[in-house]
Design a protein that fits this description.
heterodimer; A: alpha+beta; 6 strands; about 25% helix
Chain lengths: ~150, ~110
């Protein structure tokens, strides 16, 4: 048995659920967590996209109310709204999903999670696979693989 | 690879994160949890609190970096008594280390 811990983007969780359901994986635990990776929680203006709302943009550019605002992704490198300008958020909200699977299911699940979550941008998340020594279904007391099915 | 789970006081989290950053460990996951230790919570007068808010940090590191990271978390999360007579108080937390067999980066799919 293996314990699979996956840290995912918040908006990919629904897709992931669907994929796992089609695979017949029923038992999953979902958690709200915050986290960051090697980028230390930096996000580019391009990745922020719509969530970088009008008020924030006005502050960044220093525009007065009513003035025309440049779009995200416009401007020269280094200007506040250039697509590569990074914003430091520290710990970003993420979802963690935890499941226990028998050895032969692991590759299938990992592949399914990868397919549902790859956007190619930093922050897609991680999957960790740890050994799990035992599992017991509390209702019946069944042990090991029987407790999973 | 090892997975480090550190259950620490919420107020000492910034110190711990700072210490890990100095060791160039940036990647981690935080979550709010509640728990108790062998003191069975806190008893204030006749009221017993059995679940105390804590913060859990989850960090996955290569084997050779684990010992150093544990020591950094330990020193940063330890509180001193009011009169500085002892270092460490009940409730400072615990660090658990478990094996990780594989790690996949979702963006690239690499192991």
């Amino acid at each position: 048995m293996k314990l699979i811990i996956a840290i995912l983007r918040e908006d990919r969780v629904e897709d992931t659920k669907e994929v796992l359901e089609t695979l017949g994986i029923k038992g999953v635990t979902f958690l709200y967590v915050t986290g960051r990776g090697q980028q230390k929680g930096r996000v580019t203006a391009w990745e922020l996209g719509e969530s970088l709302n009008r008020n924030m943009r006005m502050q960044l550019v220093g525009a007065r109310p009513g003035e025309e605002l440049p779009n995200v992704g416009s401007g020269v490198a280094g200007s506040p709204l250039h697509r590569d300008t990074e914003f430091a958020f520290g710990f970003l909200p993420k979802r963690m999903i935890i499941m226990v699977a028998s050895d032969k299911e692991v590759n299938l699940i990992v592949q399914a999670i990868l397919n549902a979550n790859q956007t190619g941008q930093h922050g897609d998340g991680r999957i960790f696979i740890c050994p799990m020594i035992g599992a017991i279904r509390i209702r019946t007391g069944e042990q090991a693989d029987k407790a999973l099915s | 690879m090892k997975l480090i789970r550190a259950i620490i006081r919420p107020e000492s989290t910034p110190r711990v994160i700072e210490a890990l950053e100095k060791n160039s460990i940036y990647a981690m996951t935080r979550m709010n949890v509640t728990g108790r230790g062998k003191e069975m919570g806190i008893t204030q007068g006749s009221i017993r609190y059995t679940e105390i808010p804590k913060e859990m940090l989850m960090i996955v590191l290569p084997d050779d970096a684990v010992t150093k990271a544990i020591r950094m978390i330990e020193t940063a999360a330890k509180t001193s008594a009011k009169d500085y007579s002892t270092a460490g108080n009940p409730g400072d937390g615990k660090i658990f280390v478990t094996d990780v067999e594989e790690s996949h980066t979702i963006r690239t799919g690499e192991k």
